[in-house]
Amino acid sequence: MATFHGNKERPVISLNENRLLxxxxxxxxxxxxxxxxxxxxxxxxxxxQAGQHVEFTGVCFTPGSILKQSADFTIGNFGVWFxx
Length: 84
Hints:
By secondary structure, this protein is mainly beta. The chain has no helices and nine strands. The protein has one domain.
C-alpha cells in the first residue's frame, strides 16, 4: 500500500514491503530489487545554450523495482525519490 503525506514542504510517499517503486529512486540507502541506472540529463544554463550542460543526478533504481523493506520517500527535484 502507498500512502501520500502532503503537509510538509516536499511530499512524502510511504510504501510497504514488496511494493513497486513508482519513480526513479536514489539507490543509496534503499533496499530494493531491480535495475539501476545513472540518471543523467541535459540542462539549459543562463547563457542560453540549450542542452549544452550535462547534469549527473546519481545512480537510481528504475521505476518498477521492488521494495524489500517498508520505507518513506521524499519527492525531490524532477520527481526523483529519496529515502526520508
